[in-house]
Amino acid sequence: MFQAKARAEVLKEVVNVVSTLVDEAKFIVNAEGLSLRAVDPAHIAMVELTLGKDAFEEFKADETEIGIDIDKLSQFLRLAKSDDMIDLKHDEDKRRLNIVVGDITRRMSLIDTTGMSDPKVPNLSLPATVTVKGDDLTQGIRASETVSDHIALVANPEGFEMSCEGDMDQVHFRKSKKDLIALDAPSSVRSLFPLEYFANMLKAVSSGNTVTLQLGNDYPVKMEFKIAGGKGEVRYLLAPRIESGD
Amino acid sequence: MFQAKARAEVLKEVVNVVSTLVDEAKFIVNAEGLSLRAVDPAHIAMVELTLGKDAFEEFKADETEIGIDIDKLSQFLRLAKSDDMIDLKHDEDKRRLNIVVGDITRRMSLIDTTGMSDPKVPNLSLPATVTVKGDDLTQGIRASETVSDHIALVANPEGFEMSCEGDMDQVHFRKSKKDLIALDAPSSVRSLFPLEYFANMLKAVSSGNTVTLQLGNDYPVKMEFKIAGGKGEVRYLLAPRIESGD
Amino acid sequence: MFQAKARAEVLKEVVNVVSTLVDEAKFIVNAEGLSLRAVDPAHIAMVELTLGKDAFEEFKADETEIGIDIDKLSQFLRLAKSDDMIDLKHDEDKRRLNIVVGDITRRMSLIDTTGMSDPKVPNLSLPATVTVKGDDLTQGIRASETVSDHIALVANPEGFEMSCEGDMDQVHFRKSKKDLIALDAPSSVRSLFPLEYFANMLKAVSSGNTVTLQLGNDYPVKMEFKIAGGKGEVRYLLAPRIESGD
């Protein structure tokens, strides 16, 4: 059983987060709220999302799995303004999710979740933590996009740096410690990442929000941020590229 | 003879209405105003438009026919703001329409109307009438667009419904009698229509305007609305699709 | 040596002017400011641009040539708001231009200028001069775009006219002397130009700005306007098409 009511804005945030990596997703609902764990088709990135029941206006659920076509849900939500109320109801017999906004009801066939994997979150020890405005990271990415396909994230006791080196040009984005929201980097660490993936993850961060990055040396990056005004949480994990020694 | 002056906004409404169905159109002008009747190339829909002479700032005409390339007129009108005055003058000798906005004059070759048909408006008895906000219908259409190519319009004594059933999903838009501007449906009627045509017709309705639909059982729908602040009238007629009994 | 600081807005104006004709450009800097002279690949148009050192917040330069990929510079400037400060520094050893906006640095490889020509400005005697709002010319061009590929510019003692004659339609834009900012045309002159080039040049004129055209009979047109609030100057020269006598 799953029946809930939420502001469109909250569901749009969820859709933005999930759609950066997958087209279809298995949501797990239970009495406490909703959660999801998914890996992109190329197995380069993972997303974990939790949304507490207090992010909803109304929420009632027994533990169940719901397989959703993210594109369809996204299309439907585009009909709603941020403040519109969305009713969600799982029709178990017909394997549908019934969604209502205003006078419009969509009865959406669910995706069979039996074949969908449950990705395991790897146990990582990442020595450096940087907290920074999402909008700053976005500026750095925009500056880098035409220079190379890869971006290095660097943290050291002095600050944080995004660095992108192409054949012709280089782009560097630097924040010294005093200009960061928080920095904990005992030593210098650096890892290289596929720029497009990192850019897509950042698109899911609402403007004005804060992002926490955890970094190591040639290790995955963990990107965390809040959604639904703090009532939900997103953790992305992105695999590094190993730098060639040229 | 035809010579007139109108606000750009009024002519833009006319162009929006006509361009949903045809690229070229034969306008009939006479001392009372302007009118048009046209059928789309696939003979699925018809439009009737009348614009009284009081919709114009100035208007002088003897009865004549003017064949206009709607795309060209539309391009030219894009140069004008809503409140700009447009001068129109038929140059019978050179078979042109001369259009002036501000410092710019376009002398537009007219289309030969001799081959253009005069569609007959069929005599239909449509038992149900629904009056509803155009914006509401547009929301229903937007919700349906990815679900199926057809949309059912249903009226009964309780209310009005747009219903779209695809292989996977269904969308329903429902307004009960009290939420409609007017409803006169002695019994339940339902007809199925090509969604794209219905959507295009709705695009010609200015935001905030009211639309009257007349419906029968597996019968065409007649859609009526006003233009030019009530000084013009549009009637669309759209042929039904016969529902397969699956 | 070249080191300068400028508002992003000023550099964006320079990029807009140059990118209408060329992808790569050789800027000459010296103690007085920056200048450029370039011809489009088809040798139909030429641009001359000068930007005095007082258009910059800071400016220090010995005479040198800097070859810039205009697209790259344009991309980078899109990261900046109009009022942002941009730092420019020529790194002669590495043949780079280092550009800084906020926390972001781009080290941009320069283009080798040794093969790039120094176009000569032809000595022209153009009898008519018209000063007009750029926005008016833009309206005239927009009205003409679908009618023909060529546009005639006409000046005579009574006024100024842009005239575009296609196989089917004609567009005329007319300003009588009293509606022009200035007019000096002892006799009537007329020349025909490729519409796309003239339209592109106009795109570099900021909205609200004034343009001076110098015209002759089947002669090039010279288009002049100010940039950087009057601290820079642009001169375009566009070759005429010879009218066929049909």
Structural descriptors:
elongated, Proliferating Cell Nuclear Antigen, homotrimer, 246 residues, 46% strand, alpha+beta, nine-stranded antiparallel beta sheet, 16% helix, 2 domains, 18 strands
Strand order of the largest sheet of chain A: 6-2-3-4-18-17-16-10-14
The first-to-last residue Cα distance of chain A is 57 Å
- Largest interface: chains, residues each: A-B, 13 and 16 residues
The oligomeric state is homotrimer
The percent range for helix content of chain A is 10-25%
Describe, in plain words, how this protein is organized in 3D:
- Three copies of one chain form a homotrimer.
- With 246 residues, chain A is of the alpha+beta class.
- Chain A has two domains: 2-109, Box (Proliferating Cell Nuclear Antigen), CATH 3.70.10.10; 128-238, Proliferating Cell Nuclear Antigen.
- The first copy, chain A, is built from four helices and 18 strands.
- In chain A, the strands form three sheets. In chain A, strands 6-2-3-4-18-17-16-10-14 form a nine-stranded antiparallel beta sheet. A five-stranded antiparallel beta sheet of chain A has the order 5-1-7-8-9.
- In chain A, a hairpin with a 2-residue loop joins β8 (96-101) and β9.
- In chain A, α1 (8-19) packs antiparallel against α2 (70-77).
- The longest helix of chain A has 12 residues, at 8-19.
- The first copy, chain A, is elongated and about 55 Å long.
- The mean pLDDT of chain A is 95.
- Chains in contact: A-B, A-C, B-C.
Quick overview of this protein structure:
3 copies of one chain form a homotrimer. With about 250 residues, chain A is α+β, with helices and mostly antiparallel strands. Chain A contains 4 helices and 18 strands.
